[in-house]
Amino acid sequence: MVDQRRRFYCFPGRRRQTLKKSVLLLLICNWVLLGTAAVMAFYAYPRLPQKIPLWLNFFGQQTIMTERSPLFFIYLLAQALFFIFFLVMTKKISSRKIVPWKAPIFKEYAYLILIFFNLIFIHIQRSLILVAHQVAEGVDRYYFYLLFGIILVLIPYYRIRVRLFIRKPEETK
Hints:
- It is built from 6 helices and 2 strands.
- By secondary structure, it is mainly α.
- The model is unreliable at 1-11 and 168-173 (pLDDT under 50).
């Protein structure tokens, strides 16, 4: 009987190359989103009014306004730290799973989830900027919930893909 971890390395050549390309593309997209968030924050900061929000009205909470300060960059820092923490934890958790971190399908899933978390952080930063300029009232809840909903949909999607890839080669033909 072949170890299930080992079967992930028995992909047909073309299929494995396609997975590696998609993993690389997803990783590049994550770095582009991090860069976009940084450019947006550094571009907007000098143009912000003297009073800026540090916390938005998510669920009927009061918007916290303060003088413009480098605390504005706390969301960018949180996004970068979350990115690093998420990658470290997925590597650690994957050592206990059937699908190891080295398997392209696991990396694909982790990077795909990270894209949506990066979009959530970017949306929060964009909302802070718009509230500071009094163009918006807070976070667009529909967009925010949609991103979380997509993340929840990706969980069964990943499980289905793992089951398809774990099958023996003669079963997948």
